Description:
Layout: E1 23-33, E2 36-49, E3 54-61, H1 65-71, E4 76-82, E5 85-92, E6 101-104, E7 137-143, H2 147-158, E8 164-167, H3 176-179, H4 211-224, E9 231-232, E10 237-243, E11 248-253, E12 256-265, E13 287-290, E14 304-308, H5 312-321, E15 327-331, E16 338-339, H6 348-356, H7 358-373, H8 376-380, H9 386-400, H10 404-410, E17 422-423, H11 427-431, E18 436-439, E19 443-447, E20 450-453, E21 458-460, E22 463-466, E23 481-482, H12 489-493, E24 511-513, H13 526-547, H14 556-570, H15 574-577, H16 599-605
The protein binds 3-acetylpyridine adenine dinucleotide.
Amino acid sequence: xxxxxxxxxxxxxxxxxxDHTDDSYQGSATLTVADHDFHVHVSLRGYFEPIDGRYHxxxxxxxxxxxxxxLGSGRTSAVLTTPHGSAPCDISEPDPWxxxxxxxxxxxxxxxxxxxxxxxxxxxxxxxxxxxxxHPHLHxxxxxxxxxxxxxxxxxxxxxxxxxxxxxxxxAIGGTWRDNTYPGCACDVPSHLYSFSFAANPRWSHSxxxxxxxxxxxxxxxxxxxxxRHIRFNTEVTEARxxxxxxxxxxxxxxxxxxxxxxxxxxSPLSExxxxxxxxxxxxxxxxxxxxxxxxDHDLTGKRVAVIGTGASAVQxxxxxxxxxxxxxxxQRTPAWVLPRPDRHLTAVERRIYQHVxxxxxxxxxxxxxxxxxxxxxxxxxxxxxxxxxRLALRTLKKTIHxxxxxxxLTPTYVMGCKRVLLSNDFYPALNRPNTTVIASGLAKIDxxxxxxxDGSAHEADVLVFATGFHAVDMPIAKRIHGVxxxxxxxxWAGNPHALRGTTVGGxxxxxxxxxxxxxxxxxxxxxxxxSQLNYVxxxxxxxxxxxxxxxxxxxxxQDRWCAEVERRMASTVWATGGCVSWYxxxxxxxxxxxxxxxxxxxxxxxxxxxx
Length: 612
Ligand code: N01
């Protein structure tokens, strides 16, 4: 294509053997960098990448003296607007001819044949970008229609607030429970606890729910609380920028612009698949996909399948694949602690009781909650207590895996709980099968169809499944949210996310992060944490109204004090002392992810905002 060199392709993303169709745009555009608009000429192209389920686009900006003098050789984030739309992007340093490279990972700012067109599916009543919504100012804008976004919407309605919209980039609700459809996908928190306290589901079929049932539960809740009218499907928030003069947020979406008094970001930290940068991956001739973007059209029967990773996703996937695949290679960089999952079928009688005598289900839920809560001390203060559970896990391992060499490979050397404790009854038995090979080493590189492990061993595969987790600490949404002064959250955090009460961040007025920094749990249900955060959001909004003020911002000393206390508590946790590296940690080894105390304490701390 004219204006684009071969080296413009993102080498990691392109597979010479695939059948992607490229889309493209060449022409004038506006590049907005920190509130400054530059009129530029661009050559862009892109394609939909099924491995991570995202649209990848990239290209070059023609040389422009104004841009060079403003950006120099620095990298920056920007928003690119063409006559077709706007999209956030990253700008890297210029080439010797002063052409900046531009890369985006979202709905592109040009028509794309290989990603759903904004006006096609499921929402026929949606206005097109050229016909923006009739009411572009909202009281509250919610990003994401998963547990966090839907929960926020319900609580807003219960508080009498109806002027809000949920912006959802996909064409369905559910968040991670919509995206994760891999074989065996289920929740490792009991069903009664992994649901809203105000919306019990008496019909759970198992004590640990499978993904389709959780997705169906969320669909049901969406209808029960009449939320669909508030949801803008196929609408991706590309930028949220605080307007300090107007004291409100300006939102750019793939379907037009809005303003909002407050923004609730409920884009989960587990929404963006993480693919390790494996040399040779682009040239792998077989099928490749991430656990959170399962390709159900690809038949694995009789194939040589490699699963990369041994986290919560992999232990559920592996047993489901084994009966059908020809052979399975499991690349295990670090063995996991695995405990039996006390799962069982809930009988029709139990379900009828829950349906007709709701207090029984509430009591059951309370019992499960208390049982989980009673384990928090072991995680956050006395990791030695986890030795008891370790012994149980080792006993299970010994009972199930008879081959000593394999057992040695599967035995963790760090303290249980340091990485997420996995629950499974069929993972170890699956590894006993003759067509399974556990490679106790990371995947280092790929040469054609040969996978080469860090220990040097080589294995032939037809299909690669990456169960390698998510961009949790470096959530992409952080690059799109700009606070006072124009800096975005990612720049503000610089790899070290922090927030007051896990929810609000100084310099980002009227912004709420659902499952924000230091809110994730190692021992109980995230739904409990989300509901605590929602108490905080509602009290914050009521305070705005009561005080008659447009916005509140967090004082730096309050946030620092909160973070110092989190840090102090973190020091004694198993995540800090257990001797492992986990996705909970950032590059500097700090834990900006987990809540280092009880859920009761979090509930207390988020009951209301503290103006003092
Ligand atoms: O991802 P992970 P996940 N070669 O980050 C390995 C939630 N969840 O999708 O441990 C080989 O845990 C990496 O190795 P190491 C839950 O919160 C919940 O499984 O870093 N391996 C690790 O084993 C969970 O914690 C449910 O040494 C490589 C794996 O990839 C979170 O999602 C179900 C590698 C990544 O594990 C993430 O779980 C599923 C390489 N080159 C998920 N690179 C519920 O039931 C990385 N790895 C609610």
